[in-house]
Amino acid sequence: MTDAPPRDPATALEALLTVMARLRAPDGGCPWDLEQDFASIAPYTIEEAYEVEDAIRRGDPAALLDELGDLLFQVVYHARMAEERGWFGFAEVAAAITAKMIRRHPHVFGADKARTTEEQTIAWEAQKQAEREQAVRVGRAETGALAGVAPGLPALARAAKLTRRAARVGFDWPDAAAVLDKLEEEAEELRAELSTAAQAPDRGRLADEVGDLLFVLANLARKLELDPEECLRGANAKFTRRFGFVEQAMAEQGKAPADATLAEMETAWQAAKRAENAKNDL
Questions:
Q1: Do 148 and 129 touch, CB atoms closer than 8 A?
Q2: Is 186 in the same domain as 237?
Q3: Containing domain of residue 247, as a range?
Q4: Residue 57, domain CATH
Q5: Predicted local confidence at residue 1, as pLDDT
């Protein structure tokens, strides 16, 4: 193999498949790679997808190149393990997604008339539903409006998708204000549980109530046409930024946060908020 990047995608992919096969070779392969299976690799697959998203959000082309390679390697890894079991190989994976994309774009690859973005979204969902129904008929899928919403999705994202599916069949609040009312109801239920749990907290019941609260919040984001994961990601970034300001303010006073009082840190936190708000008003 050469260090120069190949110009032909097929050549580059073949080289990657060769590397993967060598890593998994019983004779001379990598001991760590040989020990892995689908379950042990799955968390890395999810992590790499998030790192791709992070590179996109940061607008970093070099990082995106690197992270897309890492994600592609995950696909190759799973395909190799499947091939070892006699299930399928990378070629079948590529052929299956190619066929699916052609099938779901008849306005591009077939005789259907051109579609607007909205029409394509509707047609895409209709085609997915038809494919699910076919899978049910041959015993390869579950039934129901919520079928096919992957349990492995991030919990907030899955909550939004579950409620979106339910909304399609009419099970939905009329507007965001109604969801806010439900949020207040769930908050009161949690407050009641906290008051009764003061002496002997039932962590299972507390977890149940907090879960209900988070689920309604995800639903509220959906009603407002917001991505709950993106909302929380923004809140995380804001907290990280402001807490860094608090740490810097404490350092300027010759203290670590652990040595400061809560009142001192709250004062710095409010200063951070004012500074951000002033910057945003410019």
A1: no
A2: no
A3: 230-281
A4: 1.10.287.1080
A5: 45
Domain match, 129 and 86 both: no
Angstrom distance (rounded) from CA 271 to CA 279:
12
In a domain? residue 183: yes
User: Is 40 inside a domain boundary?
Assistant: yes
Closest CA to 219 of 170, 265, 187, 182: 182
Most distant CA atoms of the chain, gap in Å: 72
Is residue 231 helix, strand or coil? Answer: helix
Radius of gyration of the CA atoms of the chain, in A = 25
Crossing angle of helices 203-223/176-196, nearest 10°?
A: 170
Flag whether the pTM goes above 0.85.
Answer: no
Q: Which two tokens stand for residue 100?
A: 């699916």
Q: Note whether 229 and 154 are within 8 A (CB).
A: yes
Burial zone of 89 (CB within 10 Å; 0-12 exposed, 13-18 middle, 19+ buried): middle
Residue 146 lies in a domain: no
Angle at 227 between CA 222 and CA 230, to 5 degrees: 150
Beta-carbon contacts of 68 under 8 Å, excluding residues fewer than 6 positions away, are: 52
For the chain, 282 residues long, the average pLDDT of each consecutive 10-residue run is 70 95 96 97 93 93 97 98 97 96 90 86 81 70 78 88 92 94 94 80 90 95 93 93 95 93 95 89 68
Phi-psi region of 179 (alpha: psi -120 to 50; beta: other; left: phi over 0): alpha
Whether 121 maps to a domain, the answer reads: yes
Here the tokens at position 22 are 């060598």
209 and 234 within one domain: no
